Amino acid sequence: MNAAYTHLAQFYDRLMDEDTQAWAEYLLTLASQQGLEPSRALDLGCGTGSISLALAQRGLEVVGIDLSPAMIAHAEEKANQLGCSVQFLVQDMRRLELPHQSWELVVAACDALNYLTTAEDFRKALEGVYRHLCPGGLFLFDLNSEAKLKEVYGSNSYADLHDDFAYFWDNHFCDEEQLCTMQLTFFVPGPEGAYLRVQEQHVQRLWLPQEVEAFLTEAGFELVGWYEFLTFSSPSEDTHRWQFAARKALR
User: Fold this and answer.
1) 157-196 residue pLDDT tens
2) Hey, what CATH topology would domain 2-145+207-248 get?
3) Does the pLDDT of residue 108 top 50, yes or no?
4) Whole-angstrom distance, CA of residue 246 vs CA of residue 226
5) Domain limits of the chain?
6) Distance (Å, whole) CA 110 – CA 220
7) Residue 189 parent element (H or E)
8) Under CATH, which number does the domain 148-205 receive?
């Protein structure tokens, strides 16, 4: 998983066309609707730290973890530029170990959990989240939906040209394994005006809502919300991103 973002890390923020300030507000509104006004948050698969930093700017004490050292390096650089105090750590969400710490809110944004491609990995991540949540705490996470992985990505190809780099994005969805394999090819500036070709592969798993709810129940959570992303409405067949809210029992 960590190698997948070695090259993409330097372009990630430019390719991700999302309003992360609005995203952070949405997460905190979801928490508030569940009666939670958190002071601390743990951000799993934090990437370049945009969500972590947006939460910190709203007064939360935040720790962000990601498996990619390159992504964490960019997150730390952004935090320094903003003068924002967030602790960023290289860590695997499947082996979450933050001793003597617990959180009221854990988030996993930007389809981070789609990168967990086996049931065992998904269970391990949920077990770790449960251990690190306070009683009554919330786990808010989103997943790329069936429509997104099968139709938008599917077996389609995309390309884009920027002033200082270009990329090609080839996808293949395997129905049997429910896996979407994404092959990204970047052309980036190299020495003496030449361009270097770098490639990396991403694999995401389609997890259906009923599977997710079963995993949550098994781990001890109660599913308290399932929405179309950035709304408080039930998803439709065309929804591209599902938002989940799960609560740890009070005792």
Assistant:
1) 999 988 888 999 999 999 999 999 999 998 888 887 788 8
2) Rossmann fold (3.40.50)
3) yes
4) 9
5) 2-145+207-248, 148-205
6) 24
7) strand 179-189
8) 2.20.25.110
> Is there a contact between 67 and 9 (Cβ–Cβ < 8 Å)?
no
Residues 114 and 125: their CA atoms lie apart, in Å, by 12
Number of H helices, E strands in the chain: 7, 11
CA distances in angstroms from 92 to 47, 69, 155, 175, 196, listed in the order given: 12, 11, 29, 27, 30
Q: How many Cα neighbours within 13 Å face the side chain of 7?
A: 17
Query: Are 139 and 129 spatial neighbours (Cβ–Cβ below 8 Å)?
Result: yes
- Bridge-based pairing of strands 195-205 and 179-189 is antiparallel
- Tell me: the pLDDT tens digits for 54-64? 999 999 999 99
Q: Which residues pair with 108 in a beta bridge?
A: 44, 141
Q: Which two tokens stand for residue 27?
A: 């997460």
Cα 131 from chain centroid (whole Å): 19
Strands of the sheet containing 179-189, edge to edge, are 157-161, 166-174, 179-189, 195-205
Describe the crossing of helices 119-132 and 209-219 by its angle, rounded to 10 degrees: 50
Give just the sign of the alpha carbon dihedral 102, 125, 19, 69.
positive
Structure tokens at 229: 């992303």
Select from 170, 177, 247 the least CA-distant residue to 207.
177
Residue type for 107, please? Answer: V
